[in-house]
Design a protein that fits this description.
Length: about 325
């Protein structure tokens, strides 16, 4: 099988809170004024990524993995997850606040939905002035206090409200109540899961005048009611992989590329690159590939050596 860096057709999602920044900032081919998400790399059922470049153009990621699991996923990832791609990569544009929501852990998600849980991280690519996120409780709480505030429409008063800027990173373990605020473009890395429990949606209605479904009962035993620290501080040393998040589900590094660096991988895991600023070139086997802000690239695990060159800010993701 010919190995090369893979790119995929974006899977674009209209959302009630979406906007047009995925086109104006990331050059995604959106046609709607309420596009909230671009799924860059996915094997979620019904939303499987299709390869957009090279010899395997038109094939699905699932098909490629089924035929070549060790070469694509890596020997250790294949051993751990079988032929399932364990992560989902997105860009999000929040023109309005997202709903306040929570994701179940692996145990609950498996029991209720036969799915992975949804541990995730956010990298803020662009932030309007005074943008903020809602993340966790201001102080340790409990189910009774949460339900009382939900009933009285005062839930926001007990949730933590954090102002954010470009380059901020937040790591959200399952059970963390959260909402992305208006005015943000986010790069999101998460487990392969589309399970979300919506707690509160600001009384919004859709074009037909209907409010979106809430999942109050399902969320009760999924929520972590303790105060959490989600903001991740990290180094920005040039031409080096600076660790940002290292958890059982993924490792994410921040790579400020300025010039040329050789890369040497083990073959144990695939690597994904999300270009969050600038542009760069990847050279392997005498072929050069060009990438820009908003591109997401999957490096098959068996593609072990290559060269990066350019001036860019890159998120490097793999499973360790």
């Amino acid at each position: 099988m010919k190995l090369y860096p893979l790119q995929f057709e974006p899977i674009l999602k209209e959302r009630i809170w979406g906007g047009e920044k995925l086109k104006t900032i990331l050059n995604k081919p959106i046609t709607s004024k309420i596009t909230g998400e671009s799924w860059e790399l996915s094997t979620v059922e019904g939303d499987v990524s299709i390869i957009a470049n090279g010899e395997h153009k038109g094939k699905s990621l699932t098909e490629l993995i089924n035929d070549n699991p060790d070469e694509i996923l890596g020997t250790e990832v294949h051993q751990q997850f079988g032929k399932q791609f364990p992560l989902l990569f997105k860009y999000l544009d929040a023109r309005e606040d997202l709903s306040i929501q929570v994701h179940p852990n692996d145990e609950l998600a498996k029991k209720r939905h036969n799915s992975f849980g949804k541990t995730e991280m956010w990298y803020v690519m662009q932030a309007d002035k005074n943008s903020r996120i809602i993340v966790g409780f201001k102080e340790n709480s409990n189910a009774e206090d949460y339900l009382e505030n939900l009933k009285n429409k005062t839930l926001l008063s007990i949730l933590d409200d954090v102002k954010v800027e470009e380059g901020d990173v937040f790591f959200l373990e399952t059970g963390t109540v959260h909402a992305i605020g208006a005015g943000l473009v986010i790069a999101e890395i998460q487990q392969t899961s589309d399970i979300t429990y919506r707690l509160y949606d600001f009384e919004r209605v859709d074009a037909a005048g209907n409010q979106r479904e809430l999942h109050v009962d399902l969320a009760l035993d999924a929520i972590n009611y303790n105060k959490v620290d989600t903001h991740k501080k990290y180094d920005r040393t040039p031409n080096q992989s600076n660790e940002v998040v290292d958890c059982p589900y993924f490792t994410t590094n921040f790579l400020p590329l300025d010039g040329e660096i050789p890369v040497d991988k083990t073959g144990n895991t695939f690597t994904a690159y999300m270009c969050v600023d600038g542009s760069f070139e990847l050279e392997c086997e005498d072929t050069k590939y060009q990438y820009k802000k908003g591109d997401t690239i999957l490096i098959p695990a068996a593609l072990k050596t290559f060269i990066l060159n350019g001036k860019a800010s890159i998120l490097e993701i793999y499973i360790s």
